[in-house]
Amino acid sequence: MKRTKKSVTLFVMACLLFSVIAACSNKENNTGSTSGSPSASASAPAEPVKEDPLKFVYHSLSRDVVLQENNEMYGWLKENKNVDIKAVADRQTDKMVDKLNLMLASGDIPDVLELENVPGAIEVVKKMGEAGLVISWDEWLAKYPDLVANNDKAYDDAVHRAKDGNMYMLPINLAAKKGVLMADVGPVIREDWLKAVGMSAPTTTDELYEVLKAFRDQIPDVNGKKIIPATFDVFRQYIANAWTKSWVKFSEDNKSLQFQFNNPDIEEYMVFMNKLYREGLLDQEMLTQQTDQYMEKLSSGRVGYTVRIYWDMDTVNKALKAENPETRFVPSPPLKVTGSSIVPVYSNPSDRGFNSLVVSTEFAKDPRNIERLMEFLNWNASKEGTRMLKYGVEGEYYVKNAEGLYEETPESKEEKLVQNNTFLQRTGLDSYNLTRSILIPAEDTNPRSEEAKMGTEIWEASIGEPLPLEFQLTSAGPIEQQKWGVMWSELDKWTSKAVFAKSEEETRKITKEMLDAFEKNGGRDIVNERLKAMSEFNQ
Amino acid sequence: MRRHWGEKVFSVFNYTILCLLSFSILFPFWRILMLSMNDGIDSLRGGIYFWPREATWSNYIVIFARSEIIDAYKVTILRTVIGTVLSVFLTAIMAYGLSKRHLKGRKFVNAMILFTMFFNGGLIPIYLLLKDLHLLNTLWVYIIPALYQLWYIILFRTFFQQLPASLEESAKMDGANDLIVFFRIVVPLSLPIVATISLFTAVGHWNDWFSGTVYVQDPKLIPLQTLLMKIIRENDSAQMIAGSLSTVSQQSVKSVTSYSVKMATLVVTILPIVCLYPFLQRYFVKGVLVGSIKG
Amino acid sequence: MSKGIWNDRYLYLFVIPGVIWFLIFCYQPMYGVLIAFKDYDIVAGVYNSEWVGLKYFSDFFHDFNFNSIMINTIAISLLKLLIGFPAPIILALLLNEVKKKMFKRITQTVTYLPFFVSWVVVSGIWYELLTVDQGGIVNTFLMNIGLLKEPVFWFGNPDYFWGLVVASDIWKGIGWGSIIYLAALSGVDVDLYEAAVMDGASRWKQTWHITLPGIRSTIIILFILNVGSILNAGFDQIYVMQNPAVMDRAQIIDTYVMTTGIFQANYSIAAAVGLFKSIVGLIMLLLVNALVKILGEEGVL
User: In Å, how far are A102, C24, C33, C276 from B125, measured between CA atoms?
Assistant: First the structure.
């Protein structure tokens, strides 16, 4: 018995030791695959010997559709373009910069990496370049200018070029470009309620006040609960834009600027919201509730007016229509102050690329690899390539309609309506559009819902002008880096005090305190730092 | 025996409090179960309390129709079983060694491990270490860095210290060495603490989602919780930023929302544990104390 | 002396693998603590990054919100320690008194369910129960029995925030926390109870004189360990439960670190603040540990 106990212990220890050794000698699964081997023929080729397909890993920190192993597009690309792409969908939301930093620290970069240009990410890629981990795109952009056909060179140079003069990433996904950017967000209002009170959608703050009062007085309870004329979530900021124009406002000569949190005009916004609250027109829980409760209020039919992005509006409308097909939210004009000339701005066009493409030096060691990759990307960026990658073989899933625009075939539409369908996973459509090329002008029928299409027109006035170049192209200094997040949470804190005060004088008093506080606790410093950077840029 | 009327009152009071507590927990959980079986868009309208209004399995289908789900379960079960067995064994024996007051160097080791509770290097140094040890992207990255936990060592040690010294002394006088004393005497008496720490460790493995996001690239090596989090995020339209619009507009009409999927993932996570726990409960019975050593 | 070591050879065999593990996985990466004193540059690595000394500590101490952050953190931690720590013990004792096995098992299973639910969901549950909107269950109930005239805006009032945090933390953790005490309870000698009953002691006296002393060591050890985390007021919980209306009472050290600093400045800030929390926690733990030993008990060290 003694011996069995001893041997049991020794056995377990041996197991542990063995597993440690096994782990140590375990060849780690690299994310990068080795380069595709070019054909070995050294003799002068009379006819071109077909090379092995170019194999690489396309690791995207932005995409989340996990494709089936042998999806159709993968097969088509292998057959027709001689590329074997292993697509890894690894969407990061708040951990983007952390993941990039880990790659930087360990030196493990996937062959082709796509990231989102969230604050901080571009800096990490520049560091990767300076450390020799990723290639410079300059020579390739000179050879294949189509890759940046839609880009603005000045913007890219200012934002993406590293201090050593190299461009280590390809900025892509120019969804905010003027002409491409469609209005996505704005106020929405209940169409059926407007009909019931016989009024039209408000365009100014005074009109909004009257409409909300009519809602309060005339719309009956829903499901036994009182209605809520208006409620908001973080997008309440856009109501403030009626006074402050945008989250940042420039003087005529761009020599001074105000952020929303230290713009004195915000006082009238606070007073207006306070008035709504005191007269029972504004949801008391506006600042305390969580997204789930907010969406529930909207979907249960009790709310008349709010500000939403179009896809959330669609979700809510689905719920509303399921109960009563006559009820829905429709887009409402951007809200202006009565008699004011300020047109609120909800989005600014910009030459900003939302994503970047990066290639590892490891992959580019074999010159044939990188040449073929760039050829492929060049095809990707061309109109034919883009069309193919987005819409597939013509007629299979998309057909050209009478106006020459791509439209889904009835079968595709039907398949997509099925719950939990695997349309995208099976076909691979749009997932291999590595350069995220956009066709300008657009070549498909706008797939948005009816209400969202209304939004692109109704909200169009809220698309402003691009922000001044000096502002877009300078990056945040150290003070702004440290205090930016705090400023906005402070603004919320003060808003909750000001909007829910007992009287107008109290609101005004609190707002003035807030503006004073922002002068002292960093708001003024951030502005000064920015202005300095902007003036230096201009020289 | 004579039951004090005070004891009866206390008994009623006790049962009432426990019932209230249980109900305050049961009601929201019943609701979670109901919401997981209700159509996501319909749930948005509110009002689901006791019974689903539009019953559907679609929230669960979203989870189980994923091709990675089988691998995810495999990974999680493997790491939980192997990790728990190894961890509990190693932690217990170390704690036993540290519970002997006469052991030289004991104070030093105690201080050394306590120190680590407060000072750690952060994500990047640990990542680099794991890379150098070739643990990244393997199953062992879930197990080896988690083999020892300070709290569990201390709990085991406290328990062992409480055992009557006479037990071991008499065994030693019969010529037994430490190995025998530990495995034949101490372990059978320690079933409650072993069961408890095993439960804690296993649940720790079961719930961990973080490791799968940073230490592993291979989609076949992702544990269940990480996969579930991915699924919830995918269905969360609020997370889509302006740049990814093309995928949004082309996606099908979905009637699951991230909230309804979240409810389903909760049920999937909790169910195995609720099923397992009763089996462990029997180990929390009064410990077996050999009567012969008394006196 | 070497004889002593040889005698204990198996004990050393038990302990040494653990020591090696701690050296590799805890001490090797510990150089990362230096990040708190440097302007961390990932490519240069920790050792080659620029030394800035106490800059980030100073930034933290001089932040205009520092006072309220510290007050909130300490207040919430203390409340959790004073009220939240005994709660699972009491539950374990109550469960111990339950005679019906089935009821005991079911109650145990139910009470630990909230442990597995993330704070996002738990705070959602609490928010809905306490909502000031029509139909909020708690408010409606309290009004129906006459305790309230109007619904109370629980989540909108900064004065209630600490209470809500402690209450929901207890709700979430009480069941799971009681498991360790139940295990300890099962180690109390049955004979002692029999002897006490023979002497005519009531259940209450039995609890006070037998049960509690029996699990005394467990309670003390866990208390000391909890004191070590004194400046961790519960980031996951507070982050989801906070809102602008209660922010004055809701900002704690960890949420400050979250909002401050984007880019790589955040690594250094996080490291500095983390180090500060650790040092305070360590000091507190050593103090309480010494106190406990003076009182004659076994401590953590």
Answer: 10, 12, 10, 19
**Mean pLDDT within A42-52:** 60
Helix residue spans in A110-162 (DSSP H): 121-130, 138-143, 153-160
Q: Could you identify the residue written with the tokens 């072993």? A: B194
Interface check for C135 against chain A (CB to CB < 8 A): the answer is: yes
Upper half-sphere CA count for residue A395 (Cβ side, 13 Å): 0
The confidence band for C265, taking pLDDT boundaries of 50, 70 and 90, is: low
Separation in Å, CA of A194 to nearest CA in chain C: 24
DSSP string of C268-290, one letter each residue:
HHHHHHHHHHHHHHHHHHHHHHH
DSSP H or E stretch at residue A188: strand A185-190
Domains of chain B in start order, with CATH, are 28-65+225-236+252-275 (no CATH), 69-221 (1.10.3720.10)
CATH topology of domain C64-120+158-294: MetI-like fold (1.10.3720)
Angle between helices A96-106 and B123-132 (to 10 degrees): 40
CA distance C178 to C108: 9
d(CA A454, CA A331): 7
Q: Which of residues 166-185 of B touch A (CB under 8 A)?
A: 179-180, 183-184
Task: Tell me how far apart the alpha carbons of residues C36 and A51 are, in angstroms, rounded to a whole number.
Answer: 53
Q: Which chain B residue has the Cα nearest residue C31? A: B121
| Average pLDDT rounded to a whole number, residues B233-240 | 63
**Nearest chain A residue to B147, by CA:** A16
Domains of chain A: 54-179+352-427 (3.40.190.10), 185-346+468-538 (3.40.190.10)
**Res. B43: pLDDT tops 90:** no
Interface subset of B 84-103, CB within 8 angstroms of A: 86, 89-90
pLDDT at C264 over 60: no
Taking Cα atoms as reference points, which of C241, C116, C89 lies closest to residue C172? C116
| Statement: the pTM of the whole predicted model exceeds 0.90 | no
From the CA of B82, how many Å to the nearest CA of chain C?
17
Encoded tokens for A131 = 């450390």
Closest CA to C220 of B81, A196, B154, B264: B154
DSSP per residue over A248-301, as a string? EEE-TTSS-EEEGGG-TTHHHHHHHHHHHHHTT-B-TTTTT--HHHHHHHHHTT
Please tell me whether residue C294 adopts helix, strand or coil conformation: helix
Type of residue numbered C145: I
| Residues near A399 by beta carbon (within 8 Å), at least 6 away in sequence | A406, A407, A409
**3-class secondary-structure state, position A306:** strand
**Which residues, in sequence order, are bridge partners of residue A444?**
A406
Distance CA C237, CA C274 (A): 18
Q: Is A337 helix (H, G, I), strand (E, B) or coil?
A: coil
> Is the model's pLDDT at C272 over the cut of 80?
yes
Task: Locate all alpha helices (DSSP H) within C55-202, ordered by sequence.
Answer: 55-62, 66-79, 86-97, 101-112, 119-130, 137-144, 158-185, 190-198
Q: Where are the domains of chain C?
A: 1-53, 64-120+158-294
